């Protein structure tokens, strides 16, 4: 039987292409990036934007944004590597790694810092029609404080306990877009939320309802809140940020940060950090989710981080002179 040489060549090429495809598929890295609840979560919006950029810019990476109970839960998930990376608040990162505060005796030693995602501004929002004007007016009212396990819920409890009203408000564990819906429908009187500014969910309700932002930061400073919890610091939301709120409002600030499991490849984390924090990367992320503009501000990129950096991230920060 005479075998056609062209046919043999064709089969050989197919086998080589097939083998190359298998090798390429084997080299592909599949990772999960834990965010928050799907609806209106600033953490989820942030990690989704970063994941989209990294899938586009870093070769052989397939990064999936994963919903979770929130930033505090993400500390545990990254520590156990149920998630490879996550978005967490500064307080949870510090307390979880060190096993103090709400993480007393439950150290999370496998988390490593990458950098900031966004600065968070604690908004306490009520409808103007509610008559709520000051923090003390929240007594006896139903206040949404973030979902169970969220960093916002932990901040709310710390804050309202220091103000002496935690046991005098009707606490509702709702987060993100659920807070806005509940406020609009009259199911709650106010909510506390810590996005960047302007916060999309707050812009949303301010376009259809007259809102007020409550100053809790001035009283927090008076009672020593910032000394007791050094991972929070005072800031402000400029007047005119939201429709109808013309005065500058003092607020409590912190930040949402990117963490990774310590066992992730140094080279891979270096490439991801470089892609996300480059000038081009930040411009893309700002266009996707504006609060991520903080990632381009070199004086805040690593501000407040007190746990070890992932070696890949540290390599990049040293390379560009941030560390």
Task: Determine the fraction of residues in helical runs and give it as a percent range.
Answer: 25-40%
The tally of beta strands, per DSSP, is 11
Q: Helical region count? A: 12
Rg over alpha carbons: 23 Å
What best-fitting shape do the alpha-carbon axes yield? globular
> Pairing-aware structural class of the strands and helices?
alpha/beta
The name of the CATH superfamily of the largest domain reads Periplasmic binding protein-like II
- Given as residue ranges, the uncertain stretches (5+ residues, pLDDT < 50) are 6-25
- Beta-strand share of residues: 15-25%
| Main sheet summary | 6 strands, mixed
Alpha-carbon distance between the termini? 71 Å
- Provide the succession of SSEs: HEHEHEHEEEHEHEHEHHEEHHH
CATH architecture name of the largest domain: 3-Layer(aba) Sandwich
Tally of distinct domains: 2
CATH topology category name of the largest domain = D-Maltodextrin-Binding Protein, domain 2
Class of the largest domain, according to the CATH hierarchy? Alpha Beta
Overall mean pLDDT score? 89
Structure description:
- It is a single chain.
- With 323 residues, this protein is an alpha/beta fold.
- It has two domains: 28-118 and 255-319, D-Maltodextrin-Binding Protein, domain 2 (3-Layer(aba) Sandwich); 121-254, Periplasmic binding protein-like II (D-Maltodextrin-Binding Protein, domain 2), CATH 3.40.190.
- 39% of the residues lie in helices and 20% in strands.
- The protein contains twelve helices and eleven strands.
- The chain has helices at 5-27, 42-57, 71-80, 90-98, 151-163, 177-184, 200-206, 217-222, 225-228, 266-277, 279-288, 311-319; strands at residues 29-34, 61-66, 85-89, 111-121, 123-127, 142-144, 170-172, 190-193, 211-213, 233-237, 249-261.
- The strands form two sheets. Strands 1, 2, 3, 4, 10 and 11 form a six-stranded mixed sheet that branches.
- Helix 3 (71-80) packs across helix 4 (90-98), helix 10 (266-277) crosses helix 11 (279-288) and helix 10 (266-277) crosses helix 12.
- The longest helix has 23 residues, at 5-27.
- The relative contact order is 0.16.
- Residues 6-25 have low confidence and may be disordered.
């Amino acid at each position: 039987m005479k075998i056609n040489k062209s046919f043999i060549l064709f089969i050989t090429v197919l086998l080589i292409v097939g083998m190359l495809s298998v090798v390429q598929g084997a080299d592909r890295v599949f990772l999960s990036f834990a965010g928050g609840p799907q609806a209106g979560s600033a953490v989820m919006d942030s990690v989704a934007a970063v994941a989209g950029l990294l899938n586009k810019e870093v070769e052989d990476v397939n990064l999936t944004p994963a919903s979770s109970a929130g930033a505090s839960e993400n500390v545990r998930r990254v520590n156990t590597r149920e998630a490879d990376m996550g978005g967490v608040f500064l307080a949870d990162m510090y307390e979880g790694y060190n096993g103090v505060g709400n993480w007393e005796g439950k150290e999370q030693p496998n988390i490593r810092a990458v950098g900031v995602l966004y600065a968070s501004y604690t908004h306490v929002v009520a409808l103007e029609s509610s008559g709520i004007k000051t923090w003390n007016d929240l007594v006896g009212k139903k206040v949404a404080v973030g979902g169970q396990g969220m960093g916002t819920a932990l901040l709310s409890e710390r804050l309202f306990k220091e103000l002496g009203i935690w046991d005098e408000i009707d606490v509702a564990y709702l987060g993100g877009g659920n807070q806005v819906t509940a406020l609009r429908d009259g199911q709650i009187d106010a909510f506390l939320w810590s996005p960047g500014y302007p916060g999309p969910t707050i812009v949303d309700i301010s376009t259809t309802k007259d809102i007020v932002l409550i100053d809790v930061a001035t009283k927090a400073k008076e009672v020593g809140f910032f000394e007791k919890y050094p991972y929070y610091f005072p800031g402000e939301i400029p007047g005119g940020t939201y429709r109808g709120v013309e005065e500058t409002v003092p607020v409590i600030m912190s930040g949402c940060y990117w963490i990774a499991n310590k066992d992730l490849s140094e080279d891979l984390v270096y490439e991801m950090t470089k892609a996300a924090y480059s000038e081009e990367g930040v411009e893309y992320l700002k266009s996707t989710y504006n609060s991520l503009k903080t990632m381009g501000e070199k004086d805040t990129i690593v501000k407040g981080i007190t746990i070890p950096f992932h070696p890949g991230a540290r390599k990049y920060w040293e390379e560009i002179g941030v560390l």
